[in-house]
Each structure stands twice: as C-alpha cells, then as structure tokens.
Amino acid sequence: MSASAIFVLDLKGKVLICRNYKGDVDMAEIDHFMPLLMQHEEDGLLSPVMSHGNVHFMWIKHSNLYLVATTNKNSNASLVYSFLYKIVEVFTEYFKELEEESIQDNFVVVYELLDELMDFGFPQTTESKILQEYITQEGAKLEVTKTKVPTTVTNAVSWRSEGIKYKKNEVFIDVIESINVLVNANGSVMSSDIVGSIKLKTMLSGMPELRLGLNDRVLFALTGRDKGKTVVMEDVKFHQCVRLSRFESDRTISFIPPDGESELMSYRINTHVKPLIWIESVIEKFSHSRVEIMVKAKGQFKKQSVANNVEVRVPVPSDADSPKFKTSTGSAKYVPEKNLVVWTIKSFPGGKEFLMRAHFGLPSVENDEAEGKPPITVKFEIPYFTVSGIQVRYMKIIEKSGYQALPWVRYITQSGDYQLRTNV
Amino acid sequence: MTDSKYFTTTKKGEIFELKAELNSDKKEKKKEAVKKVIASMTVGKDVSALFPDVVNCMQTDNLELKKLVYLYLMNYAKSQPDMAIMAVNTFVKDCEDPNPLIRALAVRTMGCIRVDKITEYLCEPLRKCLKDEDPYVRKTAAVCVAKLHDINAQLVEDQGFLDTLKDLISDSNPMVVANAVAALSEIAESHPNSNLLDLNPQTINKLLTALNECTEWGQIFILDCLANYTPRDDRESQSICERVTPRLSHANSAVVLSAVKVLMKFMEMLPKDLDYYGTLLKKLAPPLVTLLSAEPELQYVALRNINLIVQRRPEILKHEMKVFFVKYNDPIYVKLEKLDIMIRLASQANIAQVLAELKEYATEVDVDFVRKAVRAIGRCAIKVEQSAERCVSTLLDLIQTKVNYVVQEAIVVIKDIFRKYPNKYESVIATLCENLDSLDEPEARAAMIWIVGEYAERIDNADELLESFLEGFHDESTQVQLQLLTAIVKLFLKKPTETQELVQQVLSLATQDSDNPDLRDRGYIYWRLLSTDPVAAKEVVLAEKPLISEETDLIEPTLLEELICHIGTLASVYHKPPSAFVEGSRGVQHKRLPGSAGSGESVESPDTGSAAGASDAPPAVIPSQGDLLGDLLNLDLTPPATTGPPPPATSGLQLGAMDLLGGGLDSLMGDESEPPPIPLRTDTPQSPQVLHQSPSPPDYSPTELGGDLGGSSAMGAGFGAPPPAAAAAPFSAPVSGGLDDLFDLGGGVGMPMGAYSPPKTVWLPAMKGKGLEISGTFARRAGVIQMEMTLTNKAMSVMTDFAIQFNRNSFGLAPAGPLQVLTPLSPNQSIEVALPLSTVGPVMKMDPLNNLQVAVKNNIDVFYFSCQYPISMLFVEDGKMERQVFLATWKDIPNDSEAQFQIADCRLSSDAASNKLQGSNIFTIAKRTVDGQDMLYQSTKLSNGIWVLAELRVQTGNPNFTVCLKCRAPEVAQCVFQSYEAVLKN
C-alpha cells in the first residue's frame, strides 16, 4: 500500500538510520539511490520518484538529509510524500532542528518514533503532541508503569488529550493572508491569488467545543443574513479536528481544538487583487561595461496602513561588480552570493512611492555561461489588515465546566510568491 | 548528553566487551550495552554474534530497553532462525502484559520477525490480541494479520484470522476499523481472487461512518478501499459521492487525492443530465488547484494525476489555465508537467495567453524546459488551428535568437506544422534554410532535410543543399541517412533532369557502402522503383500524405480508465498500467470505470472530449502511442483484400505473405511487370499517427521501414532461390555488385508460408472400401478450399467411375466439380486428386462442428466415411478487420462469449506466430507489448461470414500461449482454437 522501508540518508547517500516495515524490498537496494539521483540530475530529469529494477524510490530532501521510502508495489504515492513530510514535522517538533546531527544524537527515540509512526507500511499515530505523551526523550527517567497508551491515540479525538488545565482560558487567532502574484515583464498581472491561513494558539482547559464564525458569503447566503462585506472562499482546507461533514452541510466550522499551536484552516481566494506593492523597473545592461537599475515601488493600499519590513529583491548578473546605490528611502545592499540587490524599507506607508537606483560594473570579458531571467521578488507584511476583507465574526467556546474564555484575533497580510518578471 | 556517544566505542575487542556488558548484573549497564549494540547495528556493523546475549535482556520491565531488544530481534532474527525461537516465550508472555503498550509492542514486533518456524507459536497470542479490550492493541493486531499472511497465507486462513479481521470492520473504534480495512486491502491486493473485500452496501455504510472519525491516514485507507467498490446504481453512487465530498476540504493532500479518485470513479455512473453531476464537477476543480500549493513532490503527484483527469474530463479544469503557469522557482519536474497540462488545456479562448507564456519560457536557461516549451508552441499550432499563424511567427522569432537548441527544436516542430497545414506556411522555408549550418542534432537535421525534400520544387538550390549533406553521409545518424535518401529521391522525381547524378550517388551510398540493412533495403526499393516504373515511383514516393491530427499523446482509453481508478498511486504517476508493478503481472485485477447509469447516457455528451467515450463507444481517436496499440509493422504486409483467388502473379514484395505454394518462386526480381501495389510507407505515415511524443515522424524511423518490407524473415521465406544473374537483369542499375546481397537474403529458402494443411490421414481403409483406400486432407490454396485425396487401389481389379457426394454439413461444403479421376485405377496404383470445394451447399449443424460425411462411389460400390476438416481452411482472405471495427466489436461481444485456451509448448516469437497465422488468414490487427508480454489482436472470418476475434498473448520465454476468442457464434471457438494450435505447432 505504501512504503516498504523508510531511510534517512545524509547528503552523500550514507544511511543514517532506517526502518524495514515490510521486508519485501532488499534493504541493500538503497545503495542505488544516490547514483540514481546523480544520474537523473545529470540528465536534467530530476524527479521525486525514481526506479531501479522493480524498486521505486520516493524521496524528499530536508536540510542536509534525504528521506527515502522504497516500495516494489503500486503504492499510494501521495500518501507516501504526505507521510515523509509528516515525519519531518514530528522529528522537528521533537528535536527542534531535523538534521544529520539530531538524528545521531537521538537515534533511540528516532527508532521508537519510526516504530510508532508506521506499521507494515501503514501510517499510524503521527500527532507529535500525542506521541510526546508516551515516547519521550528522557525515556529512562520514566517509570514503566506510568507509560500507558494515552487513550487519545485511538480516540476519535486523536489530536487532544484529556485533562488539560489552564488557569486563564484563552484562544489566540491569527488570520494571515499571503498574496501570490505573477506579473509579466510588460506589467500585466498573469495570475494572482490569496492564500489565507487561520492559526490558533489554544490555551483552554478540558475538552472545549469551539465554533468559528467568518464572514463567509456561502454561509451568509445559506442563513439569509447578509450584512456587510462577505468573502467568497474558492477552496477551504481544514485541520483534521474540524467536522468536515458539518461544514459541507451548513458551513459551520466546529471542532475540538488541538492544544497549543495549530493551523485550523487555510483557504484560497481567486479574486483579482491589485498587487499591494507595485514595482516598475528599468534594467539596462550594457555588455562589457555596466548595468543600470531603476526600481520604483508604490504602495497600493490604504493610506492608514503601513507595510513593514519591505524587501525588494532585484536580480543582477553574476559577474557584476562595484555596486553603487541611491535610494529615496530605506537602504540597498548587494548580496553577491545570491546575485541580488536587496532594497529594504522598514516602514512603507500606503499610497507612497519610492525609488532606488543601482549601478554595477561588468567585466570586459563576458561570462559565457547562460543565465536565467530571475524575477524581482518582494517581501512585506501589513498588520491589522486582510486583503480579502475576511473577518472573524465570533468564536464560541463551550466547555462542560462552563468557564469563560476569551478569543483574541490578529490580522496580517504578507507577501507569498510575489514575482515580477523583468526584461533582462 | 546525547546518544551520539554510543557510536564511539573502542574498536578493539568490541564484540567481546559488549558481550560482557550485556551479561552484566547492573540494569543500567545492560541498557547502555544494548544501546551500543543498536548503535553499531545502525552504522551497519554486524552484531549478530551477540544474538543470545541480547535476547537474554528481553525479559525486562524497562520499556525502552525492551523496545531496543525487539528492534534488534527484527533485524537479526532472519539470520538466526534457530535462536529466534528463544524469543517466543517472551513474546507470548508480553502479549498478556497488563500494559497495553507492551501487548501492542509484542504483537507488532512478532509480525515483523519473518521466520517461518516461529509463526505458528504466534497464532494464539495474536488471536487474543485481536479481541483485546484496548483498541490500541486491536488496531496493532489487525495489521499483524496482514504481516502474518505475507509470511504464511495458509496458516492465517486455517486459523480463521481473516474472518476475525472482517469482523473488525464493525469495531466500535475508528482506528481499528481503518487498520482492518488497510490490512484486508493489502491481503486482497496480493490475492486478487480471494474475494476478501466483498463490499456490500452495509459494509460501505460502516466505512463511510468510520471515515468521519478516523485519522487522516485511516481516511486514506478507507477511501482507497471504497474506490474498489462498484455501486449498484446511480442513486447509491450519488449518496456515496455526497458523503465523500467533504474530504476534499481535508488539509492532507493525500486524503484529497484519494477522495478525488473515488469521486472520479463513481461519477461515471451518474446520469450526465443530473444536477448533482454538474455540482460535483464544479466541486472538483478548487481542491485540485489547491494541490498546486502543496510541497513540490506532492505537486508533482497531483500534476501527473491532473494530466489524467484532464484527458478524461477536460471540462473540470478548462477555466483554470492560469494556475498552471510556470513559476521561476518551480522545480524542473513541476515545470515540465505544468507545461504538458497547459497544452492539454489550450483552446481558442486562452491561446493568446498560453503563447505569451510559452514564448517567455523559451527564453529561459534550462535547456530541457526550453526545448519542451518550443515543442509546446508547435503543438499549440497543431491543436488550435486559429493560432497556427501566431505560433509560426513566434517560432520564427525564436529562430532569430540563434540560440542553437532553440533553433533546432523550432525546425523540428515547424516540420510538423507543415504536415498539418500543407501549402500554407512554406514562405518561412527561406528563413529555415539560413540556419542549415547550425543544425547538429540528428532530429533537427532530419527534419530540415525532410522539409527540403518535400518542398524541393520551391527551393531553387535544393540540390545544392542536399548535396552538401551528402558529403558526410556515412557520419550521419541513421535517421538522417534515411531521410536524406528519401529527400533526394523526391528531388529527383520532381526535377529529374538536373539531379540524376545526385540520386545515383545517394543510391549507391545507401546500397553499397552502408551496412545498415534498413538503409540498404530502402535504397534498393527506391532503385528498383525508379528503374522499373518511374511513374509508379512518383505515385508512391510523392503520394499525398495524410494530415497529422492534434491530440497525439493521449493515453489509450482503457489504460486511462484504469489509471483513473488508481489516482494517487505510482501507476498514475508513471502513467503505466498497475500490472507493471506486480511481478509476473499475473493475477492483477484490471479496474475499469463503471458504466453510466440509465439507458439514455450511452452517448457521451460531446464536451467530454473525444477520448472520453471509451467505455461506451468505440474511441474516436486511435491513440498513436506506440506502446499500446502501435506496432502494426507486420500488418503492412497484408495483401489487399481479395475475396476470390488472388491474381496469379503476385508482386514481388508480397511474396512473403502471399506465396502459398512456393510457386511464386519467380522471385522478387523475376517479376518485372508490376510495381508493388502497397504504397511504400516511407512517405505515407499511417494516418491517425501523430508524432509529438515519439520525437520523429514515422518517415524517419528506421524500424518503420523494416516493417514496410515485412522484415527480412518474411521476405526471405517467400523467395525461392532465384538465379542471381537472371534476376539482376531487369535492374538497369549501374552497379550490380551490391545487388547480389539482396538475393542472398532469399538464398536460404525456408518453408513456404501458406495456409496450414494437416498431413493426410486415412479416411477410408481398404478393408472397408473393398480394396479402395482413401487418405486425404484439406487445404486452402489461393483462396480455394480443396479436398486433396490419394486414392489407392489395393484390390485385384481395375476401378473406374468415381464420383463423390457430401452429406449436409455445418458450413455448407460441397464439391465444386466432379471428382476428376480420368483414367481407370489399376491394382496397386495410386492417384492424387484435388477436389475444389464450395461453401454454398446445404447447411446442417454437425457434431463435432467440423465433421464431414462423405460418400464415394466407384464401379464396385458406394462407400461412406466421415472426416474432420481443419476449420482454418474456411478462413477467408478478407478476414482483416478495421481497427476501429475490431475495437467496437470486441467490446460489443459479451464477455460470456469469450473462450480462453492455452497452447502449450509453442516456441515461437510473437512475430513469427503472427506471420504463421497470417498464412492461414488469421490477421493481426494490432499488437501491444506489456511487461514483455505481447498481445496480438487478431481477426479472422469464416466463409459463412462469421467473424472470430482473438487475443493471443505471448510471453517472452514462456512457451505457453494464451488465446482468447470472442465470437458471436461461440460454438466455433473450440474448432478455431484447434486450428490455432495446429497452425502454430506446424
């Protein structure tokens, strides 16, 4: 069904740790992985799935590690990749950083986790909060009798333990919207969308029932209450705690939240938005002598709002030298290892327009290696504001002990994949 | 303190040291030692020598230590099976531990110890754990059943574990249900006939309930299991869809894809006019688009599957072009897949945008991506006619960039555009010719040469251009050489006066100086054509070519259906049939999409696209993918359909197929009169084939030509041994030296190919015939059925006045003339008689079907006997069905009219088998190769008009063939099979 074995390799392809789940693929097959990967890379045919004979490798890369699943069956590939990313998530929560050293430093726990995460190729419990209740890094300190299976593992509510207690019951809700924009060299917007995410930091006692109300147009249409601005969400994805069939039938977002931080939901909105920070650029390259760059940035959002930590990243040729900058605000810096000029503006009020000029020298001997045309990318954050206008209308919290709990909401809009193609 | 210290033990006497520590009395020291052992194991050192010492540590109340020991056991038990038994007791004990964590750990580890000897000891503990009060133990035990089944299936069945597992589907705990489903699916997959998962509405309902409550992984197991179910009707189908759609909102991409799989399958059954059907279609697009914001590997899986979905139901994503636009930082594999989908979605409405994007991509740096982008522009031109002009001008712009690989790629696609829109864009040829010198890739050179040859009359210096290529002829790759040969012959036919020298030059280069048989053969054929009948040569070489059509790399409909049923799996990522993932490819259930409900839906709505109608109507497009239906090489030899006897002088090229008596020995060269009636495929690619994925058009492909000639084997077999000198005579070629080679081909002389005719057997023994002995056989010669008899007079007196009559029989066989025994038959004399038969006599069904009752009269008495004729002699010459008709008929004949037979011990290659069968008028319509297994699709027609369709499966290296026969008159199957066997074995 999915993986026969899971391997964690270092960058050279050496096995750091592995677990054979099914025994139907020779564990030595992993020796073919690295040569195969290099072959594919050389041929320009890099692919997340590679085959050697009847063995298939599905792999992802994380920091200085490869995580590889082998199989010789017609496995569910999407399940395998989801699972590999889940392993990364769990290990990261256990060891803070997942890298070669943390695997070696914690190999006993890694083995224990691998044993618990998957059985015979079937992913099992992958909630790290729950796993931490019975697989601990200080395993030695625990009395055996205390280590019991948390009922949560097999509960329908497999993501929250019972008996959680807080003095002050609070929920923090972050509504974060990322803007993805792709602008053509001639200035026309090729595609743009908003990917929103609602994150929770839950500090609630017991088993609270929560209901989140948004100004979702479909909901308002269903209930007939049409007051104020509503938002059409093209697609919504929920954390497994949300009752999906309930949402499907009456658009109610009801759930028992996981404790602590979690992403409750994400959504995608297709409406065409004006790029919040508009960039016009003129990049002139005079071969063998110089490159001249002029970039104009304009804040296309409300005057009252301010974009923070704005970074405009402008690509320059790899052989450019002797940078000179002039900016009307903020500061520009040359980052040679990335072939970029980074123009940083700490605070960028809406409606304003700023300018940056850069000048680079080019060597007289031309670099004969072809270079791509990387786009200009922009990073920014605008607090207290969502582009889509989405709002949390209410968050109802009901727990059988009847405590009062306070929800806190924060809004922020930020850049996502924000690319503007250039002519050069 | 971290675990890394365990990796740094002293080298010297390590094992010895560890042994001592493992046997230490101190618990802490023991545990440290086990950790060191595991650390050594992790870095790949062999610590199996410590097996007994580690197992001794197993009985501990320290959970962490126990886990480590278990881990060690899993790794080394297989290498120490005898010692593994030592562990059994502890397992059994641990399975009864009060702590469910330990019980589960024991049952989980037990199943991972793949040692046959200990499995039987594990049955009792497993049985208990399956009924454990703690769901954590039950869910682990459920998986253990699958593990055990993998080691010893019989044991699991005998112990009744499968039934227990089935009961767990009704367990109160959703995790247990999910694991039970997963285990059952796993077992069912490896044993497709076990009927383990007999899904019925009740179990489906249970699964759908558990779906709402189990973990994300459990949801995937259940959804994947649901995808195997076929609802009884459209109502059930809709209700399942309604309960599955909420999963589209799950944050886990794998859950979403599995849900998409179920919905894509079940919506097949929904009536297309149902409102819900439309709603469902609309619901599918947003989650598919969202998958493109997942991690790149998941994006890749999603894109490969979207590629399938777009082919099956193009309407779902037709408005979503923009999301497939390539981003600069996409990994290359994502870029290439997006590009592919962009072309599939390209339409008149969005073509402007698409072209602008493609042009942008064509200026990137990644060579593979750029090439594909340029190719994509060509495909757009062919797909969206209105855009062709724009595409051509975009390509010309790109050629102006002079970037070498861009130019070459552009020339290759422009050639295809010429094939689609002849006489429209030839004005660009001049620009193309400017770049002649920069072409260094064979495909681009071949394309350019094709263009020059094809439009030689418009290119003033075509001869110079081609001549310049000729200089390095032998350094060129085969495809360029072949193309150059053809192009120069074209040029010669168009401008004969100036190019005579050139054509002679290329012909002699190809025939004498090359040891490539394809090139040589093509050279000879042109040579002969030109020398015998230039007019015919013109007709053949300059024949009008069929236009190439647009959708080219569509996946074959049945494969597409199967892949849709496997969305999310490796099969759908590779676009290979799931059977390719199973060793031996036996015992795989081929999943098909269910048919739609109701009667009115049999006609697909037109907007589902031409490729969609596979399940209910013959496909409108025969896909060109060589790997499936393609490879029809042998078919090109098929003689033109003739109902009567073929013309006595068959043309040379057809000998291989037609020469029944070996009488056509007049040979290839001896027959001067007729040019070959089959068009040379060198210039007429098969019509529905189009050429995008296979990078070269058929006219470039060397194998194609080999096929045109029927392959040397068929040819060689057909020739007798023609006298070389005589044969060479009509060839007015300047050099004949090379020609001898050609005749050598036939020199060996094999058996004449022809309809199989069994050896004579005695029909009427002399005892019963009062001295007359008749032995005989049946044969089909030149389209005429003959009864060939040897009459022997074993009596003492002369026999005269012979006559013959048949009783009524199944196929209306009757003598077409009198029995020709002209002279009296003296004692001890034999005479050979051939009696032509007709099939227009009175009909009566016989048993066996091919039984014939005969009466022979002579001056002494009337004698009766019966004999059986091989049904193959009733196979008529025009038994080759059109491919489309074949497909439709095959689908149309119900499966219960299918008969399957095995032919044992037949050591023929599929091609040889095909040739042999063709000699008996069993025609191969198509051939596909899956996993080294060749499937030949064949048709034959009986004299009474009954068609028999066959699928012959030949596995390389396996002498046993399988024949599946489908016929509207299933009673003939047995006889037909006998003929197959007889033909193939003789």
TrEMBL record, chain A:
Keyword check for Protein transport: yes
InterPro entries in the record: Adaptor_comp_med_subunit (IPR050431), AP2_Mu_C_sf (IPR036168), AP_mu_sigma_su (IPR022775), Clathrin_mu (IPR001392), Clathrin_mu_CS (IPR018240), Longin-like_dom_sf (IPR011012), MHD (IPR028565)
Any one of the GO CC terms: trans-Golgi network
Domain MHD: 168-421
GO biological process, one term: vesicle-mediated transport
UniProt keywords, alphabetically: Cytoplasmic vesicle, Golgi apparatus, Membrane, Phosphoprotein, Protein transport, Transport
Localization, UniProt: Cytoplasmic vesicle, Clathrin-coated vesicle membrane; Golgi apparatus
Pfam families linked: Adap_comp_sub, Clat_adaptor_s
Membrane topology designation: Peripheral membrane protein
Homology family: Belongs to the adaptor complexes medium subunit family.
Function noted in UniProt: Subunit of clathrin-associated adaptor protein complex 1 that plays a role in protein sorting in the trans-Golgi network (TGN) and endosomes. The AP complexes mediate the recruitment of clathrin to membranes and the recognition of sorting signals within the cytosolic tails of transmembrane cargo molecules.
PANTHER family xref list: AP COMPLEX SUBUNIT MU (PTHR10529)
Protein name per the record: AP-1 complex subunit mu-2
